[in-house]
Every structure is written in structure tokens, then in C-alpha cells.
Amino acid sequence: MAHAEKVFKVRDGRKTKQFTWRARFFEPDGSVGSESGFDTKKAAEDWGREQERLISIGMWVDPRKRSTTFGTFARTFMSTRRKRGRTNGTRWERLESHILPRWEHVPMGAITWFEVDSWQMTMSCEDVTRGHCVSLMSTIMTAAVDAGYLTVNPLFGRRRTRDTSADMAAPKPSKVGTDGTVRPEDVILVAERLGPGRGLHVLATGFLGFRWGEGLGLHRDSVLLTRRQPWGAGEYVCPIIRIVQEYAEYEERGPDGEKLGYRLQLEPTKNDGSTRDVDVPPFLATLLRYHLADWPHPHVFTTPSGKPWRRGNWSRVMRPACDGREEREKRQGVSYRAAWEPILPGLDMRALRGLHDTLQAQIGVKEPLAFEAAGHRRPGIKRHYQRPTPDMRQERLDGLEEVFWRAMGTLEKRTLWGRVDLRKVR
């Protein structure tokens, strides 16, 4: 049972008649805990009884744990909650660049929502990054509650304050073109400019919506498989691409966050919604068959030597094709290079994935199939009840096929790369 005892002050090595009171109580493991510095016996006893009450209802937090700094626990959290390589690297980057400079030496028990919310409003970064930093802090604080360092996470469920200044309210300039709109015609022109291998990567991303890593990880054994599904009195058959893995490029970190260099490796897809079969429209199936016939490498979209693209290397290919380039005169050791007019400045692979989702909305793809094709997990109870039907699948393929041929007609094209006749068989 909690009790109090005197603690006499010492001066010049001698015990004086002055004293304070120390509370003594039994901790959960049976050992005796203590807290000193109380002015009266009653205050010490009340404090000790309160600790034993909290212990009895399972809400007691060891004061020594409560004083643990955020930086210390954050490193413990990161070493015991290993995530996929890129996710782990992103978490460390946010900790080191934004969170730890402010909160590393602050005791866990001293962190309040008011201070965190005030801090995030002063961060000199994009608003979405602010939100991710606060979310990561909240995740770590919740883990601290589970580990017995805190009784409650003060950040949980709180809505952060947004900056409403004129600068923040002003519309942000689009990264792609003038209004962010990507036309199928733009995709075809960029694909034609890049040539068969690289151009098909661009075209497939724009019309099938791969993530960057999923396109790199696509193996030829997963391309142009066959979907068979009962359809009325017969059977629905169409070619598919099976997405089961992706290449991840990230900075590898050790248990304590030490940098171990960049890695590029195959990993399983991001989540269960990302592992999927995507129906392929006829025009793209034709191009893929031609591509696989003369492509010597196991993965479908790689560098000419068969290695996966690095983001920086791909950017050096993609940017001139979209943004344009100046003419380069021939000189010793340097070949002639023709000038390219801009097609759609700022176009990137993420915008191409967005085009696919936009086209699905344009042609009226039903929600169960739209989420499946994009690799998104549909929210809500409907995902357990609604499934794509063959009619939905055929409508999607017909719609994408029509969009492609309409764009080809606008560009007055019948072939791509001057070698493949894509005339539809009537």
C-alpha cells in the first residue's frame, strides 16, 4: 500500500533537520516505486495512492518512460516497424528533414496538439508534406501508447489547421501543360517520337494506368495472358496483363536510420488491390505482340540492355520528348541531333497514369471495374458486393479502343513507328 517517508536534506555532508516527503508505491511488477519532493506527508500519500489506482485500472505510465524523448522513441519505432523499402526511406526522410529538428529532444509526455499544430503551420514545404509529417508523428505517438510510454495520443483524430493566407489560396500552376489536361493525341505523339520500345511503355501507361514501378516490373510471362469468363450462353475471352510485382527504387536505411546507399529491386505489389489482371484493348494487344516478338529481355519495359530504368535516366529520355529540344550540330565526337518541338511540357508517367483514370471516367467505366483496373482498393461495403461483369469489361475495351482510333484519326495516322499496320479488321 502507498505510504510516505521523510527525506532529510544534507548540507556540508551532514543531515539537517529540514526534510521533504517521498511517496512509495508498488509498481505492476511488484517492485517499489518512488517519487520525491513533496512538501507534506498527505501530498506524498495521495500521489502514491493515485499511482496504485492507475495501476489497478491499467492506465499507469512509468514516469521514466513518459520522460523519454520523442527522438529516442522514434528510432525505436523505426527499427521495429520495418516497412517496404521505399516507404521506410520516405519515413526516415520526413523524420530527418522536418520532424526531428523540432521534436527530437522533447519528452513524449510534453508534446501537445496545440504545439504540433502551430509547428506544422510554420513548415516551409508543401501542404501535403505537412500533413504526412503530422500523420507520421501521430503513428509514432500511438505506438508509444501501445508500448506504455503514454496513456493517450494527443494527436489522434485531430484536424490540423490549414494556412488560409492569400499565397496559399492562390491556384497552383499546373505541372503539365496549361491546365493539367493530357490528350490521347499527346501520348501517341510522344510514343511515336520515342520509338517502339520506349514509346510502347508510354502508350501502355497512358491507356492501362500502370504505376511506374509496376511497368518496370512487368515480366513477359505476365503479358497477353487470357481471361475466360462465362458470358450469357457463351464465354468472354480477352487478353490481359497480370501485375504481381514492381521495381522499387529507394535509399536503404539501417535499423538506426544510417544511409546504406540506393537500391533498385523487385518487390511484391504495393497492396492486395494492386495485384490485378488488367484487360488489354485490341490495338495495344497488337503492339505488345510485335514488341515481344523482337524484344530479347525477360522484362517488357527496360533499357536497351535489359536493365530496369532509373528515374533519372528515364527523365533524360522523357523530358526532351515532351518538352522539346534544340538542334545539335554535328562535330567531332558528337553526332547530329535534330530539333524537337514541344508536345506537352511537363508530361510524366504519373500524369499518364492519371490519363487512364480520366479516360475510364470519360467512357463511363463502372466503379467496380474502374477501381480494379487502376489498382485501387474500393472504399466502403460495396467492394464486397459488386464485381466486374463481362459486359462492363467489354464496354471498357470498346471505349478505350474508340478513344485511341479517334486520336489516331485526329493525327491522320494509321501506323506507329512506320512498321506496324494497325488498321482495324472489319
UniProtKB/TrEMBL annotation:
Q: Which InterPro entries match?
A: DNA_brk_join_enz, Integrase-like_cat_sf, Integrase_recombinase_N
Leader sequence segment: none
Task: Write the record's keywords in alphabetical order, separated by commas.
Answer: DNA recombination, DNA-binding
* Keyword set includes DNA-binding: yes
Query: What's the superkingdom here?
Result: Bacteria
| Name of the protein described by the UniProt record | Integrase
Q: Organism, per UniProt?
A: Streptomyces cinereoruber
Q: Which classification does the entry list for the species? A: Bacteria, Bacillati, Actinomycetota, Actinomycetes, Kitasatosporales
